[in-house]
Amino acid sequence: MRPRVLLLARTTGYQTRSFGDAAEALGVDLVFATDRCDRLDDPWRDEAIPVRFHEEEVSLAAILEVLAARPPAGVLVVGDRPAVLAARVSAALGLAGNSPVAAAASCNKLLLLAALETAGLPRPWFRSVEVDTDPATIAATLSYPCVVKPLALSGSQGVMRADGPDSFVAAFDRLGALLTSPQLRAERQLANGIILVEGFIAGNEFAIEGVMHRGRFQTLAIFDKPEPLDGPFFEETIYVTPSSLSGEVQTRISAAVASAASAIGLWHGPVHAECRVNTGGVFVLEVAARPIGGLCARALRFVKPGSLDTEQSLEALLLRHAIGEDVGTYRREEIASGVMMIPIPRGGVFRGVSGVNEARQVPGTVDVRITAKADQLLVPLPEGKSYLGFIFARGALPAGVVRTLHAAHAALSFSIDRALVATTSSAQARTRGEGPPTPRRRTPPSASR
Questions:
Q1: Best label site of 75, 209, 304, 414, fewest CB within 10 Å?
Q2: pLDDT for res 12
Q3: What's the confidence (pLDDT) of residue 306?
Q4: Please, are residues 387 and 294 in contact by the beta-carbon 8 Å criterion?
Q5: What is the pTM assigned to this prediction?
Q6: Is the Cα torsion angle 109, 139, 382, 122 positive or negative in sign?
Q7: Phi/psi at 168 (nearest 5 deg)?
Q8: What is the pLDDT of residue 436?
Q9: At 155, is the secondary structure helix, strand, or coil?
């Protein structure tokens, strides 16, 4: 009988389809549990179990009922929100996984910082503030530069740097408007009622992909982020691997991520981490119990030394791990590879793109995928959370891959019209140059630390 894996996700998207393709190639039956509409008859045609991540008890019962006749060998997630429910499913079925407490800490920046503090690991100073606090009451008490962050959003959404009291008040107001917008209120996340303020960590930033295997962390890849990420916003564009860092620094990064993962209690499953490195050491910014998001995983391919198996995608590797295989013998391919997440240059209505064929013809370019749809309203960071698409490149050296990505991007021309239709969304209003509404406030900040 083919092994079975449960995949929890926020509706069907690019990454879930990548898992589906990998599962078919491996001979694994994939069962989806997504927050799709439960009143329509299979709207995505994926036979997914409909769940609500804010209704864990009901969702857990629904999943266990469907899986009772044939339990899965493992559980995987796409994105942060499903992590806690996935951990509860694994525990209920007696499968290797993370505890619900560890999963919750992996998708909450405040819980992560508190765990790092308790473990004595490097971290910035931090405090949490209720979203309806008047920022002027605390602006003079902070050290600058600092960063304001949401607790639970990902992909740098809502993250802003402040260099003084005035810019702190502006950033706090802007993030508060985002967190109290109808779109985010509909997600029913208690974490969106709190804003995190932390010291800005200077240095170069890196992304780490790995797995925890029964308490042991294994690094799969370290990505350099060659573009400066110093604010005021932190839009990520290029990931390239292998890292140009020395072996000694890479070892320290892997050790720091392993310590951070252990500090929050991660035990088994994929890990995506972010860190900054400077003369003070390695500062872990994020440890998520999930793989890298979007289409970025397509920049990774793995081989098993001495094996005749073909190259494995990250999704295939994680499926192997989920069904019980120790993937410690796999290594990333030797050739350099990278991905550019195509940034949104300005807000507005997307009309189209030209130059895709020219971009694909740039030597070293593997593919150009435009994921934005015609007539889609584009919202750039810090309010937005998506990209126009992805460019993939490979080459002998990481520096050459970066040049290829820039050259391919330069060949693209995007048509974006000004948004004219009035909306009630603060994020959409800002694409028309309007200011955000000021969130309801009260003082003093009773949730600060």
A1: 304
A2: 55
A3: 78
A4: yes
A5: 0.90
A6: negative
A7: -65, -45
A8: 43
A9: coil
Task: Put the strands of the sheet holding 146-150 in their side by side order.
Answer: 126-130, 194-199, 146-150, 160-162
Q: How many Å apart are CA 237 and CA 409, to the nearest integer?
A: 11
As a CATH number, domain 338-432 is 3.30.470.20
Domain boundaries, the chain: 4-105, 125-199, 338-432
* Residue 325 pLDDT: 94
User: Domain 125-199's class?
Assistant: alpha beta
Q: Which residue has the tokens 């339990």?
A: 71
Q: How far apart are CA 189 and CA 181, in angstroms?
A: 12
Give CA–CA dist 363/182, Å, rounded. 45
How far is CA 395 from its chain centroid? Answer: 26
Cis peptide bond N-terminal to 382, omega within 30 = yes
SS3 183: helix
pLDDT at 155: 84
Query: Rounded to the nearest 10 degrees, what angle do helices 14-26 and 314-322 cross at?
Result: 60
Cβ-Cβ contacts under 8 Å for 37 (sequence gap 6 or more): 43, 50
Q: DSSP for 57-125?
A: HHHHHHHHHHHSSS--SEEEESSSTTHHHHHHHHHHHT-S---HHHHHHHT-HHHHHHHHHHHT-----
Extract the residue ranges of the chain whose pLDDT is less than 70.
12-13, 36-46, 308, 421-449
CB atoms within 10 A of CB 311: 12
pLDDT of residue 447: 36
Amino acid at position 313, single letter: S
Instruction: Tell me the helices (H) and strands (E) count for the chain, helix number first.
Output: 12, 22
- N-to-C CA span, the chain: 53
Query: Which residues does 297 contact at the CB level (< 8 Å), separation at least 6?
Result: 15, 18, 291, 313, 314, 315
Can you tell me the distance from the alpha carbon of 78 to that of 332, in angstroms, rounded to the nearest whole number? 21
- Work out the percent of the chain whose per-residue pLDDT is above 70: 90
434 burial (CB, 10 Å; 0-12 / 13-18 / 19+) is exposed
User: What architecture is the 4-105 domain classified under in CATH?
Assistant: 3-Layer(aba) Sandwich (3.40)
Residue 83: both structure tokens together: 């992590």
